[in-house]
Amino acid sequence: MELVALRTFQAVVEEGGILAASRKLNTVQSNVTARIRRLEEELGAELFFRKGRGLELAPPGRVLLDYTRRMLMLERQTTAAVRQVGESTGELRIGAMETFAALHLPRALKAVRASHPGMELRVFTDTSAALADKVRQHKLDCAFIAGPVVDPDLQFEELVVEELVQVHAAGSDPLQQPLILFREGCAYRARAQAWQRSQGHTLSDAMEFGTLEGILGCVSVGLGWTLMPRRVVEQSLHADDLVVETVPPEIARVPTGMISLREAPPLAALKTLASALLPT
């Protein structure tokens, strides 16, 4: 079973079809079709249901997709690990929450760049839930998310503890305002909603935004309130227009750290990344 065939299969699944996969792989459609057919012949199973011009994963295809992601991740990590012994080159795919990326990630990336100058760094931001899924699916080498994390597939190294605070505009009453937060999957969302219920807020609806400054900008003009790490608020362009109030420790304290697959081979760059974020 050739790795190029597995890469082609993964591309067809993730891109949603032969044409899109051929564009991603910079090849012609006939090559993609031929690789998939050879893979099916080798495995003795149909990987897709053909529906007109579309494709849908068949049960054997779903099984192969899981193993394909593992095998390609292992191949990539093995190459990176071997290269790190000498040239310190390779690729490191890092996920982070928006807040973590803003507060902590730059100095960690700087440390990796200094210790592993040939390493190509790719950074993706998303919610904690989405990032954990991408690590499980071998799409990321690691991710920085809010904990605690208890998962048989993931190891979690706590690095910092964020303090969440309630934030609203000067002169506004958060009890009379909607909650403004990140989309579903954000680790802070459940805490904010729990705090909202406990305080008897009259409005249970919420507004969703995808960026820190989008949320804090709306809060600063009195459109709603939010829970946000204290350091994010203090560094915001809108800090002068915001009122910060403490919340109980069970809501406020959020252990945050790095997750990676338990089964993945150790990478020196990951150790460098985590070490740069540990308290000194």
Automatic annotation (TrEMBL):
<dbReference type="InterPro" id="IPR036390">
    <property type="entry name" value="WH_DNA-bd_sf"/>
</dbReference>
<dbReference type="InterPro" id="IPR000847">
    <property type="entry name" value="LysR_HTH_N"/>
</dbReference>
<dbReference type="InterPro" id="IPR036388">
    <property type="entry name" value="WH-like_DNA-bd_sf"/>
</dbReference>
<dbReference type="Pfam" id="PF00126">
    <property type="entry name" value="HTH_1"/>
</dbReference>
<dbReference type="InterPro" id="IPR005119">
    <property type="entry name" value="LysR_subst-bd"/>
</dbReference>
<keyword id="KW-0805">Transcription regulation</keyword>
<comment type="similarity">
    <text>Belongs to the LysR transcriptional regulatory family.</text>
</comment>
<feature type="domain" description="HTH lysR-type">
    <location>
        <begin position="1"/>
        <end position="58"/>
    </location>
</feature>
<keyword id="KW-0238">DNA-binding</keyword>
<protein>
    <submittedName>
        <fullName>LysR substrate-binding domain-containing protein</fullName>
    </submittedName>
</protein>
<keyword id="KW-0804">Transcription</keyword>
<dbReference type="Pfam" id="PF03466">
    <property type="entry name" value="LysR_substrate"/>
</dbReference>
